[in-house]
Amino acid sequence: MSHTAQIPSHRKPRRSTPRVTLRAGVAGGVLSTIAVAGAAAPANAEPVTETIEMPTLTAGLAGDFARSADATQRVANTLDLQAQQDAAAAKAAKTAKTAKAEAERKAEAKRKAEEARVKAAKAAEAAERASRSTERTALASTSNSDSGSSTGSSSSSSSNTVSETTSQATGSAASVVAFAQAQVGDAYIMGSTGPNAWDCSGLVQAAFSQIGVDLPRVSQDQSVAGTQVSLDNLQPGDILYWGGAGSAYHTAIYIGGGEFIGAQNPSKGVVKASLDYDPPSGAVRVL
Question: What is the pTM of this model?
Answer without folding.
Answer: 0.45
